Amino acid sequence: MSATTDKIKGNWNQLKGKVKQKYGSLTDDDLTYAEGQEDELLGRIQEKTGESKEAVKKFIDSL
Length: 63
Hints:
This protein has helices at residues 3-22, 38-49, 53-62. Helix 1 crosses helix 3. It has one domain: Protein Yjbj, Chain: A (Orthogonal Bundle), CATH 1.10.1470. The protein is mostly helical. It is globular and about 25 Å long. The chain has 3 helices and no strands.
Protein backbone atom coordinates (compact mmCIF):
# COMPACT_ATOMS: atom_id res chain seq x y z
CA MET A 1 0.00 0.00 0.00
CA SER A 2 1.38 3.38 -0.97
CA ALA A 3 1.69 6.44 1.23
CA THR A 4 -0.94 8.15 -0.91
CA THR A 5 -3.38 5.29 -0.35
CA ASP A 6 -2.69 5.38 3.40
CA LYS A 7 -3.39 9.12 3.53
CA ILE A 8 -6.57 8.79 1.49
CA LYS A 9 -7.89 5.94 3.62
CA GLY A 10 -6.93 7.47 6.94
CA ASN A 11 -7.70 11.15 6.64
CA TRP A 12 -9.64 11.77 3.45
CA ASN A 13 -12.28 14.03 5.02
CA GLN A 14 -9.55 16.29 6.41
CA LEU A 15 -7.43 16.20 3.25
CA LYS A 16 -10.36 16.89 0.94
CA GLY A 17 -10.52 20.57 1.94
CA LYS A 18 -6.84 21.07 1.18
CA VAL A 19 -7.19 19.35 -2.18
CA LYS A 20 -10.16 21.60 -3.02
CA GLN A 21 -8.11 24.68 -2.07
CA LYS A 22 -5.32 23.70 -4.46
CA TYR A 23 -7.59 22.48 -7.25
CA GLY A 24 -10.53 24.87 -7.10
CA SER A 25 -12.34 23.28 -10.04
CA LEU A 26 -13.05 20.10 -8.08
CA THR A 27 -16.50 19.48 -6.62
CA ASP A 28 -17.57 17.31 -3.69
CA ASP A 29 -18.77 14.74 -6.23
CA ASP A 30 -15.30 14.67 -7.82
CA LEU A 31 -13.80 14.00 -4.40
CA THR A 32 -16.17 11.27 -3.26
CA TYR A 33 -14.08 8.45 -1.86
CA ALA A 34 -15.06 4.83 -1.38
CA GLU A 35 -12.72 2.29 0.20
CA GLY A 36 -10.72 0.43 -2.44
CA GLN A 37 -11.25 3.09 -5.10
CA GLU A 38 -8.17 5.22 -4.52
CA ASP A 39 -7.01 4.89 -8.14
CA GLU A 40 -10.43 5.95 -9.42
CA LEU A 41 -10.36 9.00 -7.13
CA LEU A 42 -6.86 9.96 -8.32
CA GLY A 43 -7.99 9.50 -11.91
CA ARG A 44 -10.95 11.85 -11.41
CA ILE A 45 -8.68 14.49 -9.86
CA GLN A 46 -6.16 14.06 -12.67
CA GLU A 47 -8.82 14.33 -15.39
CA LYS A 48 -10.48 17.39 -13.87
CA THR A 49 -7.25 19.30 -13.13
CA GLY A 50 -5.04 18.27 -16.04
CA GLU A 51 -2.27 17.37 -13.58
CA SER A 52 -0.35 14.12 -13.95
CA LYS A 53 -1.26 11.28 -11.61
CA GLU A 54 2.22 11.54 -10.09
CA ALA A 55 1.77 15.28 -9.43
CA VAL A 56 -1.55 14.63 -7.68
CA LYS A 57 -0.03 11.82 -5.60
CA LYS A 58 2.95 14.00 -4.70
CA PHE A 59 0.65 16.80 -3.54
CA ILE A 60 -1.46 14.43 -1.41
CA ASP A 61 1.68 12.84 0.05
CA SER A 62 2.96 16.29 1.02
CA LEU A 63 -0.11 17.06 3.14
